[in-house]
């Protein structure tokens, strides 16, 4: 896919309105792609965070888990 939806929309709006855009239409697609990559990087930086906090919450909620009489240690 050589053109993005944003590029096509920007071109259609510019032609329909008869106004000139402040930058080339393909640059809107590049900016959108860069913003998406930044958002993906932020999301990637938080990978594993839920599991880390789930482990801490589990140890705090049950500090003596598995030490009561009859506990099985397989």
Describe this structure in words.
Helix content is 64%, strand content 0%. The chain is an all-alpha fold. The mean pLDDT is 77.
Keywords:
74 residues, mainly alpha, 3 helices, 64% helix, rod-shaped
**Rg over CA atoms:** 26 Å
Q: Can you tell me the number of structural domains? A: 1
Total helices: the number is 3
Largest sheet: none
Report the structural category.
mainly alpha
Oligomeric status: single chain
In sequence order, what are the helices and strands, one letter per element? HHH
Give helix % range.
Answer: 55-70%
> Hey, roughly how much beta strand do the residues contain?
under 5%
Which geometry do the CA atoms define?
rod-shaped
Would you count the extended β strands for me? 0
Low-confidence stretches: none
List the helices and strands and how they pair.
Layout: H1 5-17, H2 25-45, H3 49-61
Q: What's a concise summary of this model?
A:
The protein has 74 residues and is mainly alpha-helical. 64% of the residues lie in helices and 0% in strands.
